[in-house]
Design brief:
The protein has 279 residues and is mostly helical. It has helices spanning 2-10, 15-25, 34-42, 47-57, 66-74, 79-90, 97-105, 110-120, 129-137, 142-152, 160-168, 173-183, 192-200, 205-216, 226-236, 241-277. The radius of gyration is 25 Å and the shape is elongated. It starts with a helix and ends with a helix.
């Protein structure tokens, strides 16, 4: 049945319908039919659709067909689409990494360049990280540069201060909160005050709450002193009751550390009182 289904898919005149049929078939095809499936993908005129089909086929292709899939990806003229196709092949063909990074570097659209770097970051060997960092630093838009840098942070911890500085400079509160949320799990104690100040300065309470929740989730008695704890409470005090209460589970170890069981009981009683008042 599968050979007939593949042949039927190939004969579908409408490219969108043909692509949809191939997409549904791809995970079920035996290795003997994969060369034909790749041929069907190669015939797709739309570059973005062709790239999409390549990304779906790649996990199923035997090693012998991967070089052919790579050639199909290389022939895509659009830089951003070619970069996307190449980055999807990287996990199956690690040797394509330098080329994929080179293509990503040449993408004119900064948003798509940052996205390509984001997808490549987990696969980059140490030898290519400096080049990836140079690409990220060359992005002019603060939001996209912050996104590219924050995705390199797990692999290049020394970039953290720079990434945080870029995140602080993002004017849009939503984008700044997102950048801080991504950075939060990696921040050392020395950068926590700066991150807290950046989060506190976000105008929208919703986005400020998101950033503060991410930061409080990383706090422990080992990385917080009394001064920072007081500043964190002041920042949390700018939130409405419901947003503040969502951070309480993150704060329990710190409340116990700085105030003991008495303070924790008082917090618990305060929450119960407020809940009763606002029934």
């Amino acid at each position: 049945m599968l050979p007939e289904a593949l042949e039927a898919a190939r004969g579908i005149g409408d490219e969108q319908d043909r692509t949809r049929a191939l997409t549904e078939l791809a995970p079920h095809l035996p290795e003997s039919l994969l060369p034909e499936a790749l041929e069907v993908a190669k015939e797709i005129r739309s570059e973005s659709t062709r790239a999409y089909e390549l990304t779906l086929l790649a996990p199923h292709l035997p090693e012998s067909l991967l070089p052919e899939a790579l050639e199909v990806a290389k022939e895509i003229r659009s830089e951003s689409t070619r970069a996307w196709a190449l980055t999807e092949l990287v996990s199956h063909l690690p040797e394509v990494l330098p080329e994929a990074l080179g293509v990503a570097r040449g993408i004119g659209d900064e948003d798509k360049r940052a996205l390509a770097l984001t997808k490549l970051a987990p696969h980059l060997p140490e030898s290519l990280l400096p080049e990836a960092l140079a690409v990220a630093r060359g992005i002019r838009d603060e939001d996209n540069r912050a996104r590219a840098l924050t995705n390199l942070v797990p692999h290049l911890p020394e970039v953290l201060p720079e990434a945080l500085a870029v995140a602080r400079g993002i004017g849009d509160g939503d984008s700044r909160a997102l950048a801080l949320t991504r950075l939060a799990p990696h921040l050392p104690e020395s950068l926590l005050p700066e991150a807290l100040e950046a989060a506190r300065g976000i105008g929208s309470e919703y986005h400020r709450a998101e950033a503060l929740k991410a930061l409080t989730a990383t706090l422990t008695p080992a990385n917080v002193d009394l001064s920072f704890w007081e500043n964190a409470l002041h920042a949390l005090g700018t939130l409405t009751r419901s947003n503040f209460l969502e951070t309480i589970p993150n704060l329990v170890p710190l409340i116990l550390h700085f105030g003991g069981e008495v303070a924790l009981r008082e917090v618990h009683q305060g929450i119960r009182d407020v809940s009763r008042w606002w029934k």
